[in-house]
Here is the input.
Amino acid sequence: MAQVERTDEQVVRDVLDGDRDAFRLLVRRYGDTLYGHALRMTGSADEASDLVQKAFVKGYRKLARCRDPQRVGAWLFRILANLCKDHVRSRRSDVSLHSMAGVLPAGSDPSAEAEGAEIRQKIRGALDALTPEQKEAFVLKHVEGRSYEEIAAVMDTSVASLKMRVHRAREALRGLLEEYA
Amino acid sequence: MNDDFHRHLDGELPADALDPAERSRADAWERMLASYRTEEPGHAVAPPWLEQRVMAEIEVIPERGPFARALTWLIRPTPVRVPPIAAALTVAAFAAVLAWPSPGADGPAVPPDGGTGAESVVFVQFVLDAPGAQSVAVVGDFSEWEPTFTLEDPDGDGVWTGRVPVQPGVHSYMFLIDGSDWQTDPNADRYQDDGFGNRNAVLAVGE
Here is the structure.
């Protein structure tokens, strides 16, 4: 029997009408996307899952304020992105403690991982030194591969502003280019 | 890094349009990013327990009662499109009500010019990269060339932005940094000489 899947708009309406279990569908639909972004922003699996959990719970509490239920995924993403920026901002004083522990796949060859690890660490350090907004723009553009127009729509900002942030991020990485030349 | 390098990475300029040095740098950039992406999580999958944790936390949130749900229905924002003629008629109706003489009133409460306020205005987002600036204003014919509209840089990253109400038409403008340094918008679509040796940026705003 074919089962018609509820649209995001229907799910939001059902949740607001009291069917809180329907929110599970939004977690399933957008959990991976949100988690991936949080992971790239924080570099920590534990921190990423905590932030995603916070974002979904906050989204549930504020769901009535979602102006466009058809784009609830983008709305949840914006909640998460703001939490990530706040988180990155709050821990900038101890970025030297930042590591990717927990992200690398289990069983990775240490010698293979060591190759290039130093330069990657430098890239990560350079990104951590950016403002959270610049880092976010860089991650969305160059790591997640999104277009400026897509990012602008999700983050409710202008393409010109995003370009400037990405340009700044590139300039911050300029010195590292020599090692790949 | 020059502008061409950024334009290439932004997808606005093909690689063969770069000079050899910039092309080599662009290749190095791709290698560097590829190396970075191999370690970064490409297709991250949320841990399976995340859904249960979220739902468990949601379960203990007090349920919204029927009154709250009804209130939500009442206040839920709904986009409404109003044809320009309907908007003009509505404004005119308000003006007529305001102009209706009330006891003791000396005269109609309408603007002296009799305007209805129905002229359309478009909010234009201005952006300027000005690290180190203390203030940035956008100044143009739409502000009578006065620094009325200031931009903001709330996160301190040197990118100043602001939305300014502009009437449809073609406008000239400049940025005024720290109250004295005039700068032409480097990202404008068009420019024109201002007659004093500088170039104004030109902005075309449609109806």
Q: What stands out?
A: The first helix of chain A runs from residue 8 to 16. The radius of gyration of chain A is 18 Å. Confidence is low (pLDDT under 50) at residues 93-108 of chain A. Chain A touches chain B through 61 residues (CB under 8 Å).
